[in-house]
Amino acid sequence: MIEFDNLAKRYGEIVAVDSLSLKVAPGEVYALLGANGAGKTTALRCLATLLQPSAGRTTVAGYDSATQPLEVRRRLGFLAASMGLYERLSPRELLSYFGGLQGMTESAIARRVPELIELFDLTSFADRLCGSLSTGQRQRVSIARSIVHDPPGVVLDEPTLGLDVLSSEAIQRFVLESRERRCAVLFSTHQMSEVELLADRVGIIAHGRLAAEGTIQQILELTSETTLSRAFLQVAKAGR
Amino acid sequence: MNFANVLLVFRKELTETLRDRRTLLIMLVVPIFLYPLLLILVQQLAIFGRRQLEEAPVTVVAQGAGGELLALLQSDSSISVEFAAAGTISSVQQGEADLLLVVQQPSDEHASGRAALYYDATRERSRIALETTTEHLEAWSDSLLMRRLAAASLPESFAEPLVLADSSVATAERMGGYALGRFLPMLLILMTLLGAFYPAIDLSAGEKERGTLETLLTTPVPPREVVAGKFLTVALVGISAAVLNLFSMLLTFRYAAVQFAEAADMQVSLPWSTVLTVVLFLIPLAVFFSAVFLGMALRAQSFKEAQNTLTPVQLASILPMTLPMVPGIPLTYPLALVPIGGVALLFRELMTGGAPPGPAVAALVATIFYALLALRFASRSFGREDVLFGVREAPVGRRSLGQRIAGWRSGRRILPTPAESLGFVAAVGLLYFYVGVTLQIRMGEEGILVSQLLLLALPAVLFAVLGPYRTRQTLALRTPSPRALAAGILIILGGMPIGWLLAWAQSLFMEIPAEFLTALEDLIRAETASEILWLLIVVALTPAICEELVFRGVLLQGLTSGMKAGRAIILSALVFGAFHLSIETAIRFLPSAWLGALLGLVVWRTGSLFVSGTMHFINNGLIVLIVATPGLEQLVMGPNEQPRWSLVALGAVLLGVGLRILPKRGGSLVAGEVLASER
Questions:
Q1: Which chain B positions have a beta carbon within 8 Å of A101's beta carbon?
Q2: I need a surface site. Which of A82, B94, B103, B123 has the fewest CB within 10 A?
Q3: pTM of the prediction?
């Protein structure tokens, strides 16, 4: 469903992503780990058609992000780390707006928006302006926004960053439900406990390169470590 | 383009904009309340000032005033008269008195008296004292005159052999239009600009800052549709702000007219047809502002950065808006083409009831053209990753000037970037304008020689040699083939009559100042062989070397490293045309730009400044020879100073042959290709 094929992204002499290859199958949850500046966000932005690759390609359901961006966007839900919402729209208006942008009909939007409001427990603030929402509420709205068109692939860039336990739990529940719906989920995070709970496979990225990949068990065996945190540290340091 | 998407973005942006207090303030509150409030404020201030004056009368120190004059002054409650045997000017200077009046009464019935008034022109009260006292003095003088006439048994008409009566034939409506036309265009355009300013920033840089732009661009809506929706919102807000301002101003003025304008014989209102036309013309202008602001604000990373970037543009836009306030500037074809200024002048003409149709259409077409250009600029800014994420900026942090220069020099490359070459030409241009022109005024022909060599050629050579570039490529120093040289010569021989035709056509719309023409002819007029030789060196050979190094060397080569050849040639030609502008006239712009385009094309194809130098020498040299040779000028130019059509036809043929035999671009010395291969 989601594929990176030798992806490279350079800014002048700075190499942000280098020969990155990985696949996420339908119904699979893939966690992308890496230190700050390792190239996770750049790689995800290339997939989401926001950046042009310097070399290689990324695809979603067989569509190339660089040459068929509109097809990719129709099949991908993307949650950026910035968690940006329109401050002067309510969650209900925001979801309807993005449904429209995704090409949904008015009747489809009218069905889908209440569904999402219920799924992410937005009812109590669905008609308040987003500018007045708490961080946790905003993040739930953001995720609802990213899947308004019910895409077969979802990319979440640090979805639980800065959230309290309750809000994080809601998002984790969403990821698990997505897996059940045979959705391919690719997410980046710094929370190892979250990875252990959610991920079927893990990729550790260091200096733009995929330094290790496999199930959590395979990563632990590869590094001869007992915890994912220590395994991650070992791989990240070795990648320097 | 999917208009459903555009409409969707537009509706959402409009909803958000109308929920933004800042925009509402500019769009609704200011126009609705500002003008009535201003009017009330002005009235109140006037009343306050009058009361102040009544409560505290101005102090007039009177010396020598007595009798009837004194009674007149004392009867006025707004004046407090003090007597002084010998009043001093210093009392007025120090503010102790508002006016010193020194009167020398007439010695007898036939003599003249004298009255000297000393006041401080920088103090309002002193000026009021002058005005009031002068009125009393004139009244006293009139009464003296009447008595003398009566004593001599003469009628009053004896002292007034001619009674002057002037009256304006303008109707009250036209007077109102004239008064409005002076300042209303500026206010209207300014409010359009201000109306578009904040929404443009909020919908672009603001969206980027809040992190929503990234999200928006992951939806399957092409960037041009998003930008179209945003742009429509900004334009609508800009137009609405202007229209609301227009109506609020007109209503306020109408109310004010009831109180003030009757005395001034004017009717402060505009016909509905004029108001409608003005609103229609505001639409392309609002489009222009919106697109320029959107395009520029998109390049900024934050709201604050966008404000900093747009403020100079805002200030620069105000300058052409003031054109209607300058007396004696009519709406002509050239002025109609001035961005913003053309529309401002047109508004004035519409309000005074006499817009010339030709220039009016030109102003409309030009504004639509500028708006489309700006729209294209905004659309291109959108969706570019460097614009979205600001990724082109290298993370270098703060560096000193020395470090920057060292960094610049260490980054070896073949050619300067477009920004570097444009920056260089801007610096050289300024230097030439301030120092070169002074040298030419003081030293004459020698000044041209010195400024061309020292202010153009030397900096260009230093830039190419000391900069981190390959000198030969930057200055296009390729040895030309005989065919390239022959093609260049044919192109310039053919291009010259066409250039003259352009200059003549231009002179139909833009008058050439007689002094400018005389000065130019004086400069290139020579009678002896040695004078001709000297002129050929100064005005033909020197520019052929020095200007070519700058414009077809550093500038054109730098531009081709970062943009398509056609655009680079046109841009370098426009800059070359602009370099030949002078304070007196813009008449040299078009012919110089034409010459620059021909020279640029040849250098692009041949990679050789030697060819363009030869062409430039032929162009300038031939002009010197034509002016210097008796009879030749008449042979070249027709009776109306237009080139003979036979010559233009011959020129077209020569130009065609030259272009045909001009070698195709190629070879390793041609810089852009080297650059591409080394990437």
A1: 5, 8-9, 216, 219-221
A2: B94
A3: 0.66
